[in-house]
Amino acid sequence: ALEDAISASRLPARTDNRCKIVWCGRLTRVKSPDRALATLKDLERQVPGRFHLTMIGDGPMREELEITTVRDGLADAVTFTGRVASPAPLMASCDLGLLTSDVEGYPNVIPEMLACGVRRVVTTDCAGGLDALPGVIVSSDKTPAALARQLLKAAKAQAAPAELRAVLEARRPERFFELLAAA
């Protein structure tokens, strides 16, 4: 779609050697997108120019976040895509995922990121059971410094965990309907 092509044009080129992080959600307080920017700021202090954050989504905090990005000198390290009808291609262009929510029911965005090829997802402990997913690193410490430490560890992984494919296969929607039909 045109909207997706416009968003993709704002992303770093594939030849860009930075580690690409994706954050996806509504730009609201409960999702703590400001924590994602603070985490990137911490990463920039430690390893300048090594990371790029793509924030997929829109919401009431957008303007505040854009101002923070400029104020903190992160304008070249952050892309705000706005709402995207199909975020999968944008997720697929990223190496790592980041979830910064205070609380979630079950964040479906995590398996979506992993299914798109994101190698690892670093998340706050916003919901139970997240550590059961291969490739997910749950940080009980929600501070930007702790999340940055976990992202630095995750960036060292060159591939998704081998067992991830089987876990995602078991969770695909078609499998759910197959089980319902067999019952």
Describe the structure.
With 183 residues, the protein is of the alpha/beta class. The chain is 40% helix and 16% strand. It contains 8 helices and 6 strands. The chain has helices at residues 2-9, 33-46, 62-71, 88-92, 109-115, 144-155, 164-171, 173-182, and strands spanning 19-24, 51-56, 78-82, 96-99, 120-124, 136-139. Helix 2 packs across helix 6 (144-155). It starts with a helix and ends with a helix. Residues 1-9 have low confidence and may be disordered.
Provide keyphrases for this structure.
about 180 residues, alpha/beta, 6-stranded parallel sheet, about 40% helix
Describe what is shown at a glance.
Helix 3 links the parallel strand 2 (51-56) and strand 3 (78-82). The termini are far apart. The chain is of the alpha/beta class.
What percentage of amino acids are in beta strands? 15-25%
Please give the number of β-strands. 6
Largest sheet: 6 strands, parallel
Which class of secondary structure composition applies to the elements? alpha/beta
What is the average of the pLDDT values?
A: 90
> Into which percent range does the helicity of residues fall?
40-55%
Order of helices and strands: HEHEHEHEHEEHHH
Number of helices: 8
List the helices and strands and how they pair.
Layout: H1 2-9, E1 19-24, H2 33-46, E2 51-56, H3 62-71, E3 78-82, H4 88-92, E4 96-99, H5 109-115, E5 120-124, E6 136-139, H6 144-155, H7 164-171, H8 173-182
Parallel strand pairs: 1-2, 1-4, 2-3, 4-5, 5-6
Helix pairs in contact: 2-6
